[in-house]
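Q: Entry one of two.
A:
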Amino acid sequence: MLHFRKALGVALTAGLLAACGPSSQTATVASSTARGTLEVNPPLRIASLDAAGFATELGATSAGAQLLAAAGSPACGVDFYYLEFWTVGGAGEVTESSGALMVPTGAAPTCSGPRPIVLYAHGTTTDKEYNIADITNTANTEGALVAAVFAAQGYIVVAPNYAGYDISTLGYHPYLNAEQQSGEMLDSLAAARAALPKTYASATTDSGKLFVTGYSQGGHVALATLRALQAAGSAVTAAAPMSGPYALEAFGDAIFFGDVDIGSTEFTPLLSTSYQHAYPSNPIYTTTADVFSAPYATGIDTLLPSVTPIATIFANGQLPELAEFNSTTPVVSIPGQPVESAELTAALAVPANPVFKLGFGSPGLILNSYRVNYAEDALSNPDGAVPTPKAGVPLAASPPSINNLRLAFYKNDLRNGNWYPKAPTLLCGGDQDPTVFFSVNTGTMEAFWSNLPPGLITVLDVNAAPSGPFAAIQTAFQASQAEELASEGATAVVENYHTSVAPFCTVAARSFFSQF
């Protein structure tokens, strides 16, 4: 669920951009604010590179050269357009949103004419000004990755920035709100399809093939989008959600019972604020002091996303960098249930695992009283996947409103809704991920859909012994991990693991899509 912590150091320089700005057509501004409406058409072209120029740009840094080696030499040039469109927030509020339309260019048959669309969902960022379309921004490593892997190989890419970011005036981001985020993905797709005929590369058209993918937070968004597209009767060619928190109720249970993921103190304010707006009849808190400890409660509901860098937010004491929970173990006392009380007290102790242990300190972000309330809900209404997976990995019945955060997790858990992918789907990740746990999320979905026809669901663990059609990707990932261990040490490997998986899963997604 993190953005790219370990920067790829890839961006396109102004010196190689050409013919930017609106096309020769007169731009029109839409009067409607209906969702999915493209606000300005044709959209602004931020950047344009031919294939050779793109390769030169990528090869200018060692990290870019590594990306070039993984993605392959660009077959096409790419035009980068900035989309402005209308969508809604988590409570149905009308808001502007924005994103990228990346259009392949060039004379090669794979670069023009009818081309497939990749609808891409990005990972978590705390940067309020995030704009995946601005490929000239050196911080936009995910945009560079998607451009190199997909757009430069002949795929039209559509990637929203999400409500609450960039030009959106929504005062929060509907983080991991499956209904809102999947709906916004569809809105961005509608806007992009309206823009495509009026771009400079108008000869590049929609072939009708639609692929859906995304990484981390975007993995959850991508899988929710597949569900939404199926519900709308829209054809999806294939999907490849990557390293996503799909089984949110199970994942939340694991974290509250002490398996604290790296980045939790960033994710928690985004989640609580998102669900506070989405579910007013089941609010997460009456006041933020119901959930968060005194040093952090005031202002946390408007803290993220922010124009202030997250490192500064940590340094200012507005959030703890690591301590999700208090290092003093709460003592649980449930009337008439001494055994259960003792079990919960033991379960809430500081774990021995050194990575999870980092998530405890004094004071922790979340109050002990709130953690106990959540744990009592999990005890009364077990999920089925955590702590011990049950056969079929059922989703617990909707929990009563003992703890409304857990209820929100249930609502946005992608086992919810009695559905399954009808398009071929690749679930890619790494089983040592300390940020989005592979077994709790990807493994749970694999088990949940274990009775589907063979070949419909493909699971790729880049950390597993290399075999099958993705063996080269697994080998390359493991070699990169060994190199990082030798050069930077074990701590760096753990801290960067979630980010390190991204390029390899993204290339795997393209390989998967190429079959169709």
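Q: Entry two of two.
A:
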Amino acid sequence: MIWGTSFLFIKVGVRELHPAYVTLTRVALGAVTILILLAVLRQKLPRSPRIWAHLAVAGAIGVALPFTLYGYGEQRVPSLLAGIWNATTPLATLPLAVLLFRTERFTARKLLGLAIGFAGVLVVLGVWTGVGGSALTGQLMCFAAATCYSVAIPYMKRFVTDSDVSELALVAGQMLSATAVMAVIAPLLAGAPPAPTSLSPEVVGSMVALGALGTGVAFVIHMRNIRLVGATAASLVTYLSPVCAVVAGVVVLGESLTWYQPVGGLVVLAGVAVSQGVRWRRRARPVPQPAATGPDPTIDPVSAKP
């Protein structure tokens, strides 16, 4: 729910802020939130230079870049559509896990799932309607952002989460790294930031919620999920966040939804399910047994065997 409604807050934020400053604000507020939790729980930041190097990579690829891409994308497409594109994260994780991280292998089932998922992507795009213009650019940016998560999740699992550093400390390091990156990039992309007093209450509230919840608390939960259940299972949150994003976009922002966008999202998720081997088994009904009226003459009463 936190990540699903984050697309709504991004949409509100980019009304008055450049996407780069939306990212800088949310990662800075997220870092402050985690640092406060670290102080309350008396935990320390990572000390290993190796961990910090990996957190810097994860902060750039898994936080700064996708957050900024979603901001640019939502300048061109509705927030609910950005949420639907987030569902492609597990689909993009598979080829990267096979080709880049070499933690999985291609099978016929996985290739079939990828083909189904790709067909779902074409449906979401509505290719038969003649896709083009800024809407296509915005959708491709959202897809690229989801792909960044596909790189960051297995990267964190392989190089970071298996350490003895707490989830809070890891997220704090990741957010501090992303804040440092965006503090340099944002002024280069957008010039000087606007004065906080010039922002509307809606934008200020959205940035606080996006930073403290969507970038602080949610990432702690996500980091713990990666550590406990693995990268693939942790990426399954993208099954649920598009639903929340669509509901929030329609109910709160009054956004419109064409029929093929949610249908394409369902096809993408079906492809993800096939590629990951999800099975739906019908539970067999118990066969009614006749009431016992006495000892069964076909069973030896001593050995209890027929």
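A: Comment on entry two: The chain is about 70% helix and 0% strand. Residues 2-275 form one domain.
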